[in-house]
Amino acid sequence: GYNHPLVLTLLIIIAIMFPAKHVAGEIENGTLELLFSLPVKRLEIVFSLWIFTFFSLSLLIGGLLMGTFTGIKIYLTGLEISFNRIILIAINLWFLIMAIHTYTFLLAAFSREGGRTALRATGITLFFYFLSYVVKLWSGMEKLKYFTIFNYYQPQKLMIEQADPTQNIMVLATLSVMCLSVAFWKISRRDIPG
Description:
Layout: H1 5-29, H2 31-36, H3 42-75, H4 83-109, H5 114-137, H6 155-159, H7 165-189
């Protein structure tokens, strides 16, 4: 279920929606300019938006975990299932979704329109998703697997202990930190009306 397209789509929509609406959309409406005129630092305002999404996505993935554990307890009582592996998959999923969120945040920092930011982030995410499938189907494209973020989230391999999530989490975390750093740098220097 953690790799089902519907689950990924819903989480990705939330990860893209928050920065597109609350950063680029607020710049488009002129609301962020008003907030930046208050005696609060720009980065505090923008960081609070990022923190809100951080906790929202954490709660959603925590809900997924609780649902999984409840379903296992009720319906799969005779099977041995590694709860540690399921927790690792959820952590890896959280880092994947946060990576999508932070590159959307980066796009929003350079944009003035929420709709375009959402479309661009969705396009980038779909490109990564389809590239991961092309790489799986066509062995000649295997070298491109390192260029898709979905390569760093493989719940099936994690569940059967064929993969260690440490490297995947490190790559996704590094991407997130880099995007967030550039986004904060841009917002701290941005001239809002232009």
